[in-house]
Design goal:
It is a single chain. Helices cover 18% and strands 45% of the residues. The chain has a 16-stranded mixed beta sheet that branches. Helix 4 links the parallel strand 10 and strand 11. It starts with a strand and ends with a strand.
Length: 267
């Protein structure tokens, strides 16, 4: 079984969300003990085991320090780019598919760049939230996303200068995630920090679904951004920085957001 390290969405190689992709050798089943050992010892943010890869589609199992995760969307771009870069999937104009129990997510990649379409009901509404949780911030909290809600807090300051939300209060409030973001309408730029302890990421170095939610937030804050690229930077206190470009529309309550970024297949 080979291990390939991938940096998802980093401003440069090593600056983004680090993913280890485990690819079993041809005609061999994966080794549960080897996977468990790797997950225990790796410094990657997440490990993706490729379960199948054929006919332009792949399936995975996802692991992080807390065990196996049911959430595969976070890592699918990195896995797809890795499989294309290593010749297991064909690059080009055709989309590849990530197959999950909930259906298939299609995306495009040439092994270096990815484009992922998100289509579904546009979520944008106020959310009840513990005042103590958001008291360190001046902005308002609301829910946004494509089909599912992320909890966002619109702040005036650079999110990197602000304290992290209290994870205990998040858990007591039933919040899996909380994203702080600053919006610059002139530059059409989002600066964000994503905290997702409910998904196994105390502070997320680069979250693809959260980027789509921020794209919806940008369209809601500035309707003139319809169809215009919006840049989303996700930073952490560890010094990582991921970059996404979101282009989308909201029409009759339906969001179509395409999120693109750079993926570095490192070794």
């Amino acid at each position: 079984m080979s291990r390939i390290r991938v940096d998802m969405f980093g401003l440069s190689a090593g600056r983004g969300s680090v993913l280890d992709v485990l690819v079993p050798d041809a005609d061999q089943s994966w080794d549960a003990a080897a996977v468990s050992s790797h997950v225990r010892d790796t410094d990657a943010h997440e490990t993706a085991l490729v379960v199948s890869c054929a006919d332009g589609a792949f399936t995975t199992r996802i692991f992080h320090a807390d065990g196996e995760s049911p959430f595969g969307t976070h890592s699918m771009a990195g896995v797809a780019a890795c499989l294309v870069a290593r010749g297991r999937l064909t690059p080009g104009s055709d989309l590849v598919e990530h197959i999950t129990p909930n259906g298939a997510q299609r995306l495009w990649t040439d092994g270096h760049h990815v484009r992922v379409p998100f289509h579904g009901p546009a979520v944008h509404h106020a959310v009840p939230i513990d005042p103590d949780l958001v008291s360190p911030y001046t902005g308002r909290a609301f829910g946004a996303g494509v089909g599912r809600r992320f909890t966002l807090v619109h702040v005036d300051e650079d999110p990197r200068s602000l304290p992290a939300p209290d994870p205990v209060l998040m858990r007591k409030s039933g919040l899996s995630d909380l994203t702080l973001f600053q919006w610059d309408p002139e530059r059409r730029h989002m600066a964000a920090r994503v905290f997702a302890p409910g998904f196994g990421f105390p502070e997320d170095a680069g979250c693809l679904p959260a980027a789509s939610a921020l794209g919806v937030a940008a369209l809601s804050l500035d309707p003139t951004s319809q169809g215009v690229p919006v840049t989303v930077n996700q930073s952490t206190a560890r010094g990582t920085e991921s970059v996404f470009t979101c282009v989308g529309t909201i029409v009759d309550g339906t969001a179509d957001i395409k999120v693109s970024g750079r993926v570095w297949v490192m070794r």
